[in-house]
Amino acid sequence: MTLNYLSDHEASLERIVQGFINTADKKALNMWCYDYIENPPFIEHGHCDSPFKELDMTHIMEKTVNHHEQVIELYTHIYSRVDIDSAKELLDTIKDLEENEIKRMVQGVNRFSDM
């Protein structure tokens, strides 16, 4: 049940980010690409090899939140390096969205654990 809930949230977040990709200033989007290529965003950990279905709810949430925090760190890093106002505005918006989605996911999963 937890994995289905998280999957739905991730799919929703993907659709929202795709909307930004379709509507954002191309200069802002190109800044991401260059920085992404030069600075890989994710730190691989040894515990990433275990499938989610083998983990309990606590460990699933730890991994999920960790991945989202790494994405937020990437947005923050890129924000500190760009000079284009539209890019800064877009990064702020997406970072806020990402932070709010983490909160919503954690609250939702906490409700599951209360059941």
Mean pLDDT: 81
Q: How large is the share of residues in beta strands?
A: under 5%
Q: Which shape, going by the Cα principal axes?
A: elongated
Gap between N and C termini: 12 Å
Organism: Paraglaciecola arctica BSs20135
Protein name: ATPase
Helices, strands, pairings?
Blueprint: H1 2-23, H2 26-38, H3 57-81, H4 85-114
Helix pairs in contact: 1-4, 2-4, 3-4
Describe the structure.
The protein has 115 residues and is mostly helical. It has one domain (2-114). Helices cover 78% and strands 0% of the residues. The protein has four helices and no strands. The protein has helices spanning 2-23, 26-38, 57-81, 85-114. Helix 1 runs antiparallel to helix 4 (85-114). The radius of gyration is 16 Å and the shape is elongated.
Concise summary:
With 115 residues, this protein is mostly helical. It has one domain (2-114). It is 78% helix and 0% strand.
Q: Can you tag this structure with a few keywords?
A:
115 residues, mainly alpha, 78% helix
